[in-house]
Amino acid sequence: MIFEPVVGLEIHAELQTQTKMFCGCRRVDTTQAAPNSAVCPVCLGYPGTLPVVNKRAIELALRVALALGCDVLPESVFARKNYFYPDLPKGYQISQYETPLASGGALRIVTPAGSRVVRLRRVHLEEDTGKLTHADGQPPASLVDFNRAGVPLLEIVSEPDLFSVEEVKAYTTAMRRLLRYLEVNSGDMEKGVIRFEANVSIRPAGSRELGTRVEIKNLNSFRSLVRAIDYEVLRQSERLARGQRVIQETLGWDETRGETTSQRSKEEAHDYRYFPEPDLPPLRIEADELARVRAALPELPDARRERLMSQYQLGAAEAEVIVEDRATADFFEASAHARPALAPRRLAAWLTSDLFGTLNALGRPLVDTHGQPALAPADFADLVERVVTGGITGPSGKAVLEEMLRGGRMPEAIVRERGLERIGDDAALREIVQRVVRENAAQADQVRAGKISVVQWLVGQVMKASRGRADPRLVQTLLEEYLSSGRDG
User: What is the secondary structure of 429-489 as a DSSP string?
Assistant: First the structure.
C-alpha cells in the first residue's frame, strides 16, 4: 500500500522587540550574552511579581496576522499553560488558548508541482522558555539560561495541509521570508529565533481520513525539519505494513543518530489545565489600531514579485531570487531608478550572478545588519551601464566590481586609474591578436589543423595581453579571420 504524509506545522517566531513579553528585561542574543544576564523577578517567576504586556509585541503580531489574511479577534485572552520543566521558572507559561489573537488566514506556496494555498488555523502570542544545556560529567548536569525566558513568541499554526517535504520546505521558507519582510523576526535560524514543531501522520494515498499523528518538538533548522519528517513517515509506514498501529506521542529529534525518540505520550489540552491568566486583562484590539497597523504594512513578497515582473519585465526566476530578501529587492529598485535608461534585466543579471558571486567570495552580505549596502545602488548601476554600453568589457567590469566592494571607490575612478577603458580601435586590437599568434605559433598551427577548441585558449591569451580591455567575442572573430587567412604574422 502507498501512503502519503499529512503534516501540520507550528512555527514559533521570536519577535524583534527591545524588551521581553511581560517585563522590562532586554531581549538579548542568547548565543552571545552571558547566561542569566538579562533576567528579573518577573521573568524568573518570583512570588508577588506581576506581568505587563509589551505593546510593541502586540503590534508586530498584528502585522503578521494581517499579512496572512487572518481574522483578528476584537478581544483575546492570555492563559496559563501549566506544566513543570526546569526551563520554566514560574511552573506555567503565559500563552493564549481558547481565544487567540487571530484565526484563519492562509499562505501561498510554490513548488515544482505548482502553486497552492496552505490554510492557517490560528496565530497567538506567548512567552518563550529558558534554554537548557546538558553537560557531560560526573555526575551529568543540566544548566539553564533564563535569558530567553519571557521573550515574546508568535506561534503560527497551520492546518494539516502539507503533503510532502517539498511543500513543507516551501511553506517554511515562504513564512520565514514573510517574517523578515515584515521586520518582526531576523530569520537567523542558527540563533534559534525560529523553531518548528511538526504534527505528522500518514494515510493511504487518495484517502481523506487523517491517521494517528505524532508531534515532533523543537526543530530549529530546515534540514532537521525535513529529515525528521522523512524519518517519521518511513517509520510509520513500516509499522502499518507490519500490522502495528501508530501510537500518538510527543517525539524529539536526534540529529546525530538521524531518528526520532519518544519523549512522552501525547498531551491533550486538558493536561495543561489552561485557565485565563488572572493577572492580565483581556487584550482588546480597537478598529483604529488595526487600521493603523494595516496601513503601515510594506509591499508583501508575492505582490512585489508580480510587480517586478510587470514593471521591469523580469522573468519569474529572476524576480523570485530578488524578492527573496527585502533588502535585495530594495537595492535592485534603487539601482534601476538610478539609471532609468538601462535595461532592468541586465541589472538583475549582474545582481543575481556577478554581485552575489563576488559577495559570497568575499564573505560579505549585500546589506549589513545596520541596513548599509556593500556599495551604493547608483554606483552599481553606473558600473553595469559601462559594461552594457561597451565602455568597459565584462571581465573588466567584474574586476572593477571586486575593487568597489573591497575599497568603497566609485567605478569611474577605478576604470580611469587602471586604464580599463575598452579597446575601441580595431587596428590596435588586431595588432595584439597578431602578436599573440606569433608568440604561440604551435597553438595557432593546431587551430589551422582543425583543433578548433584551441581558439578559446588563444582568446584567453589575447584577453590577458589586453588586460581584459578587449571584447572576447570580437577577439574570437579577429582570431578566426586571421588564422583562416593563412598568414603567420
Answer: HHHHHHHHHHHTHHHHHHHHTT-TTHHHHHHHHHHHHTTT-S-HHHHHHHHHHHHHTT---
Q: Is 33 exposed, middle or buried (0-12, 13-18, 19+ CB in 10 A)?
A: middle
Match 489573537 to its residue by C-alpha cell.
101
**233 grid coordinates:** 513517515
DSSP, collapsed to helix, strand or coil, labels residue 217 as strand
Determine contact, residues 161/174, Cβ cutoff 8 Å: no
Domain with CATH 1.10.10.410 in the chain: 426-484
Pull the grid cell for residue 335. Answer: 539601482
CB atoms within 10 A of CB 18: 9
Q: Is the dihedral of CA 456, 457, 461, 467 positive or negative?
A: positive
Q: Specify the CATH number for 426-484; select among 2.60.120.600, 3.40.50.2300, 1.20.1730.10, 1.10.10.410.
A: 1.10.10.410
The amino acid at residue 276 is P
Q: Beta strand 249-254 with 214-219: parallel, antiparallel or unpaired?
A: parallel
Distance CA 152, CA 137 (A): 33
- Quick: pLDDT tens for 208-238: 899 999 999 989 999 999 999 999 999 999 9
Q: Say how far apart CA 340 and CA 58 lie, in whole Å.
A: 41
> What does the buried/exposed string (b/e) look like for 107-145 if buried means 16 or more CB atoms within 10 Å of the residue's CB?
bebbeeeeeeebebbbbbbbbbbbbeeeeeeeeeeeebb
Q: Whose CA is closest to 472, among 460, 481, 482, 483?
A: 460
φ, ψ for residue 128, nearest 5 deg: -80, 165
Taken in order 31, 157, 196, 364, the sign of the CA dihedral is negative
Question: Using CA atoms, how far apart are residues 368 and 386, in angstroms rounded to an integer?
Answer: 27
pLDDT number for residue 1: 80
Contact 246, 214 (CB under 8 A): yes
Burial (CB count within 10 angstroms: exposed 0-12, middle 13-18, buried 19+), residue 419: exposed
CB 11 within 8 A of CB 135: no
Residues of the chain where predicted confidence (pLDDT) is lower than 70? 265-269, 423-425, 486-489
pLDDT tens track for 147-160: 999 999 999 999 99
| Chain centre distance of CA 465 | 43
Instruction: State how far the alpha carbon of 225 is from the alpha carbons of 108, 153, 155, in Å.
Output: 20, 19, 17
